[in-house]
Specification:
The structure is a single chain. By secondary structure, the chain is mostly helical. Helices cover 61% and strands 5% of the residues. It has a 3-stranded antiparallel β-sheet. Helix 3 links the parallel strand 1 and strand 2. The radius of gyration is 23 Å and the shape is flat.
Length: 311
């Protein structure tokens, strides 16, 4: 819970009413994430621990809590169930990307709960993969437009990192739900690539009516993550590979990875993607490459080289 003082901090917000890093509510949430990380990452001796050698050496003098304290329907598991419910039900005002980016790592920290009550793992994956494709608020004409965009991209990265964190730690549990996860991930990937290749129908700008905004007349454009950065979407491919590590049968895992590659190749060879790749200007726009300035520099270099070659 955040204090009333934090709830009333309306000065440290950006032009669309989302928290800045100086906002008291953001500071409180960020601190809570650090507490969870210390407890669940650095204080428990997991049976499946794959901690890097350097980190193990640094922590050799620390007595860790044995993971077995969560066994036998421990009261600690009941506590984690309640925490999980609180995190899922907590929603910041105005879908604040800064605050939401702090919520997702909290969900990824509850590894002891997911190992003993896998149904909560399925709920977590559904929440993260449902939030991932949601559109992001931008304010292109605002003075802090770049910061707002960075916060939006960071929010999606946090979802991807949270999914990967869970999949890398407990692939043997995640693999139980590989089919629904696979379908949801591939639907997200296909939808985001289509956003890229169908820019003839951009999202309609809407006027921001949030009273917390510094500029009530500022216009907010809702954008897909793929219009800002392809990085978070690419992490979803990695997610499926990590989950496949939980398959004990090598042939079954090979089949899963072959299917994944087939989906990737089919997407890559689709007419939508090929049309982009065959159009240099559209491809440059896709990867946000400054085509005009690049061509100008090439032209200048060619002129300089031709000049130097004149006898």
């Amino acid at each position: 819970d955040t204090s009333n003082t934090a709830n009333n901090d309306t000065t440290n917000v950006n032009s669309i009413g989302h928290c800045t890093i100086n906002n008291e509510k953001y500071i409180a949430m960020d601190g809570l994430c650090d507490v969870y990380r210390i407890i669940f990452e650095n204080s428990i001796n997991y049976k499946f621990n794959k901690t890097k050698a350097m980190k193990r050496k640094k922590m050799a003098h620390i007595k860790l809590l044995d993971e077995s304290v969560f066994d036998n329907n421990s009261p600690l598991i009941k506590m984690l169930e309640q925490i999980h419910g609180i995190i899922l039900n907590w929603k910041p005002n105005n879908n604040d990307t800064q605050l939401m980016s702090r919520i997702y790592p909290l969900l990824s920290a509850l590894i002891p709960l997911y190992c003993r009550q896998p149904k909560y793992l399925q709920i977590t994956f559904e929440r993260l993969l449902t939030d991932f494709p949601k559109l992001l608020p931008l304010s292109p004409t605002a003075n802090d437009a770049f910061d707002i965009k960075c916060n939006a991209v960071s929010c999606k990265r946090r979802i991807a990192y949270s999914l990967l964190h869970i999949a890398k730690r407990i692939p043997h549990i995640c693999v139980k739900y590989i089919e629904p996860i696979w379908k949801q991930v591939m639907d997200i990937i296909k939808a985001n690539f289509s956003t890229f290749t169908h820019k003839s129908t951009p999202h309609k700008p809407i006027v921001c009516t949030n009273t917390n905004t510094n500029n009530s007349n500022s216009k907010v454009i809702m954008a897909s993550i793929m219009e800002l950065s392809e990085g978070p979407v690419c992490h979803l491919f990695e997610l499926l590979v990590c989950i496949s590590n939980g398959l004990t049968d090598p042939e079954e895992r090979m089949k899963v990875l072959s299917d994944l590659l087939k989906d990737v190749v089919d997407n890559f060879n689709s007419s939508d993607i090929q049309n982009v790749l065959n159009d240099s200007k559209q491809f440059a726009n896709m990867i946000q490459f400054p085509m005009s300035s690049h061509n100008k520099n090439i032209h200048n270099n060619m002129v300089d080289n031709n000049t130097h070659n004149v006898d």
